[in-house]
Specification:
Length: about 240
């Protein structure tokens, strides 16, 4: 039991560590206007951006309460996942399933760390494109760009740093191929935390039969037909 716990805790720690190292490295070595850099051939590249919302850049709106609500949701989600993990661990769940839950927890926590602390650790530039937020009501003077509406800043309001991108296009023979459009198979830019969440969820979806085997609650019914037949025959003979 303790071995299971140690395995998952080490995995969670490693994911959080790698996630934060890659984010800090990208923020301190890349500029937002830098072109993509090939990491593994041309199909997997690094491109520094920041997003103001959920995984893969999903947002809930421009108000400060939208961002606060999202960050608070992440906090409660992390707590709920941790509680669920402990409950399943005490019930003797499979190590693989606990690892999948741990991946989701690590991903949610990794992105939450950005929102909580990055506005205090790094300098904030309101004139960078990914800090613009139309409808926020917060205006900043950006020189030749004029005044720009920018995002709210502070605790739980920071951006999430992303950097990985698959640069793979659909082949021209697929029906939905657009000769004049973007044919990226997966255009989203993501980070280690997003990847951990995705892998954990995929594991739970595709391995749920192994994680949650159906228990046969019905008791076996003894086959009494042969015994009954013998009793009837014996009664007839008497």
């Amino acid at each position: 039991m303790k071995k299971q716990l140690y395995i998952v805790l080490i995995a969670v720690f490693c994911i959080l560590l790698i996630d934060q190292i890659t984010k800090i490295w990208v923020k301190t070595h890349f500029n937002y206007y830098d072109p993509p850099v090939n990491a593994i051939g041309s199909w997997f590249r690094l491109l520094y951006i920041e997003n103001q919302g959920m995984a893969f850049g999903t947002t809930f709106g421009a108000s400060i309460w939208a961002k606060l609500g999202l960050s608070i949701f992440r906090i409660f989600a992390s707590i709920a996942i941790a509680y669920y993990f402990v409950k399943q661990w005490r019930k003797g769940a499979k190590t693989e399933f606990l690892l999948a839950v741990g991946l989701v927890f690590a991903g949610a926590t990794g992105n939450l760390i950005d929102s909580m602390f990055y506005d205090f650790i790094f300098d904030y530039d309101p004139c960078i494109a990914f800090n613009h937020l139309e409808g926020s009501g917060v205006w900043s003077d950006c020189g030749i760009m004029g005044k720009q509406e920018t995002r709210h800043t502070g605790f739980l309001l920071g951006n999430v740093v992303d950097m990985f991108q698959f640069n793979v296009e659909w082949p021209s023979w697929v029906p939905w191929y657009d000769k004049n459009g973007d044919n990226q198979i997966f255009p989203a830019i993501w980070n280690v935390a997003d990847g951990a969440i995705s892998v954990g969820v995929i594991m739970i979806i595709f391995r749920q039969r192994k994680y949650f085997p159906k228990e046969n609650k019905g008791k076996a019914v003894p086959n009494t037909s042969a015994a009954s037949t013998e009793e009837n025959i014996a009664g007839t003979e008497e």
